[in-house]
Amino acid sequence: MLTMSPTPPGPLAAPRVQSAGDLCKAMLAGTVHAGPFDAACLDRTLRHDAERGLLEVQAGVSWRSLEPYLGAVFLPGSVGESIAANRAGPDGEPIVRHLHALTLATAGGELHRASRERAADLFRLAVGGFGAFGPFYSLTLDLASLARSAGRAAAPAHIELPDEGSGGQSFALELLVPPARSDEIVDGMRGVLAEHRCSLRLVEARRTVPEAETFLCWARSECVALRIGYRARGATLGACASAAQLRARLIELAVAAGGSFMPGLLPLATRAQAEACYPMLGAFLAEKRRLDPAERVLSPWYRGVRRAWRAQACTVRWARD
């Protein structure tokens, strides 16, 4: 019989999840609603179907541990994190291309298996859904597809600029821009950063490949994923307001040029920007309410998106000091 793993004492200790039974019990106990749980122990390989070239792993398995199967470290972090964000692989293809099936725990504490053929709507919502519909227990990967992607890996164009000693905090944004306008957008970003007395520290550009399988699809056409790093002022209230306005202006540069931004930034974007780049977001949130009307599953990303979606626009002023 599966039992809940013992939890270390203390109010901040997160329950450890080691099995499917643990995960379902954590859902029923409201752990996901109340706060995070420790899924680091979901790190086992469950099944290797050599004949079909499929590998089922628990969500906490790291890509590094799969190097013997793929011949390379496919992505940083864990398999579950990559699929929750539908990250682009080393050749620019979104990770959904290499996923055969998934198993997640729903708000009712039940395990559901989904694929393109079975529970296809749940599959489309969960991949790239940032945990809004429940945490993953396992993912079944297509090894041949992953190996082909790893073999086509292309290093991003990378420019690291000298630190100008402006102090403050470091920030990063990942935007999606039309290939023909990437240089123009970078130049525009330099100007906006200079207005805010911030310094551009890093520019990375990687080609991405479109897909149409996920509900919250970010790769609707071939584009350049442009990652920029910059340094802004400290953590005072005025500096935070200025940083939020700066971020909105940088996102707007990409949107105005026919680009977009990665869905991980949705909690930080304005509602107008979210509606322009993710016109399906309202329907996505409606599906969330339909499948989880009590909102028992509240991932940090979903909390942020819900808050941004309900926010009212206001005027923000920043001062040069």
Describe this structure in words.
This protein is an alpha+beta fold and 321 residues long. It folds into two domains: 20-151, Uridine Diphospho-n-acetylenolpyruvylglucosamine Reductase, domain 3, CATH 3.30.465; 157-310, Alpha-Beta Plaits (2-Layer Sandwich). 32% of the residues lie in helices and 20% in strands. Residues 1-12 have low confidence and may be disordered.
- Gyration radius, to the nearest Å? 21 Å
The CATH architecture of the largest domain is: 2-Layer Sandwich
What separation lies between the terminal Cα atoms? 64 Å
**CATH level-1 class of the largest domain:** Alpha Beta
Helix content: 25-40%
- Give the CA-based shape: globular
Q: From the 3D structure, determine the CATH topology of the largest domain.
A: Alpha-Beta Plaits
Q: Determine the mean pLDDT.
A: 85
Task: Work out the number of β strands.
Answer: 10
Discrete helix count: 11
Total domain units: 2
Key traits:
single chain; 321 residues; alpha+beta; Uridine Diphospho-n-acetylenolpyruvylglucosamine Reductase, domain 3; Alpha-Beta Plaits; 2 domains; 5-stranded antiparallel sheet; 11 helices; 10 strands
Topology:
Blueprint: H1 20-28, H2 31-34, E1 45-49, E2 54-58, H3 67-70, H4 79-85, E3 99-105, E4 111-115, H5 120-126, E5 136-142, H6 143-151, E6 157-160, E7 169-177, H7 182-195, E8 199-208, E9 223-232, H8 237-256, E10 260-261, H9 271-277, H10 281-291, H11 300-310
Antiparallel strand pairs: 1-2, 2-5, 3-4, 3-5, 6-8, 7-9, 7-10, 8-9
